[in-house]
Amino acid sequence: MATTTPGPEKLSETRPAPKPWWRERSLLLGMIIWLACVAAIYPISHGVLPFNRPNISALSFQQQIVFQVFQPIVFFIFLGVIYWLTRRRAIPDMASRAPDRSVAVRETLLMWAYAAVVLGAGQIIGSKFFGQGIGLHLNGSLFGVTHMQTPREVWFWAAYNFLLYAAVPYLVFRARGYSWEALNLKSANPRNDALVILVVLAMESALEFGLSGVTRLSGHQVILGATLSFGVHLLGTGLPIMVFIYSILMPRYAKLAGSATTTVLLGAVSYAALHVTEYWTVYDSPSHGALSIIFVLLTFFWPGLIKSYLTVRTGNAWVHLWGYHAIAPHVTSDTGNIVKFFNIK
């Protein structure tokens, strides 16, 4: 008996419609994990946190927990603005930029195995030569300086992260034949990308200055410190994060997940995962280790969500770098730290 192949109309009728984002299982799972993390803080800590975070040391335990509970509100506002700015543009099919599923799985697993080695080596090398491990943020970022660093240490940190998280992965994947577009490094809509960058950058800068105020620096300190802060953090955290997660991993997540919502969530968790060795984390006991992982997740998941959403909506990893990383917060908030480390008068 002969069989016929259904035409395009028949295929479109039988293909299941994608679920609305609010009905995605990954979203429900993410909410459950977030609630579990917040709920676990007091039973594990008994009201005492082991972290040395000078910028928030004046806050009580209860105030810090309240902050963790309500901080998502700000990020939801950002998500709404980004959606509104990109609502009329064609959303790139990021999954089509990834290789076949089996290759995508293998490349993703190898990337994370590589990241584990680089993170571990950074802790060993940094502790041996500088008294503190190498993480994806320079000491002092976000929570205040706990270890004064020399310019040599700062540049070594930047060079280590740039070489191993950005340069090596980029060169390897380019050598494997992936184009700039396949690595999310080519804009499909430069005009809209520029608009998104400017609006998000303005919002984040206003938020940074509103929370911390303007640092009291001289004109010379501002000019030289901001320039150095931009360059150091671009090499040490901006480009490494962009290449490792948003250029290489995100298209593979899109291929494997088959869902924009799940892709965004995976990108957010990946951003947090690369920060498990932050300078303020403590792993000297099981309880301190659990609290460190919980607070890393709660702290970095939401910024990672914004970076991931920007990348999914634009298909351009550069957008998050310029709009929500390289300048704000690493120039707007971290210039004062660089002025201290380089002893700029």
Q: How would you concisely characterize the structure shown here?
A:
The protein is mostly helical and 345 residues long.
Protein model, in words:
The protein has twelve helices and no strands. It is mainly alpha-helical. The protein has one domain (49-88, 95-341). Helix 6 (151-175) packs parallel to helix 8, helix 8 (219-257) crosses helix 12 and helix 10 (286-314) crosses helix 11.
Overview features:
mainly alpha; about 350 residues
Uncertain segments are 1-15
Number of DSSP E strands: 0
How much helix, percentage-wise, in residues? 55-70%
What's the number of helices? 12
- State Rg: 21 Å
Estimate the mean pLDDT confidence.
93
* Largest sheet geometry: none
Shape: globular
The structural class is mainly alpha
Number of domain units: 1
Distance between the termini: 87 Å
Instruction: Classify the beta-strand content into a percent band.
Output: under 5%
Order of helices and strands: HHHHHHHHHHHH
Fold topology:
Blueprint: H1 8-14, H2 25-45, H3 61-70, H4 72-86, H5 101-130, H6 151-175, H7 190-212, H8 219-257, H9 260-273, H10 286-314, H11 317-324, H12 335-341
Helix pairs in contact: 2-10, 4-7, 4-10, 5-6, 5-8, 6-8, 7-11, 8-9, 8-11, 8-12, 9-10, 10-11
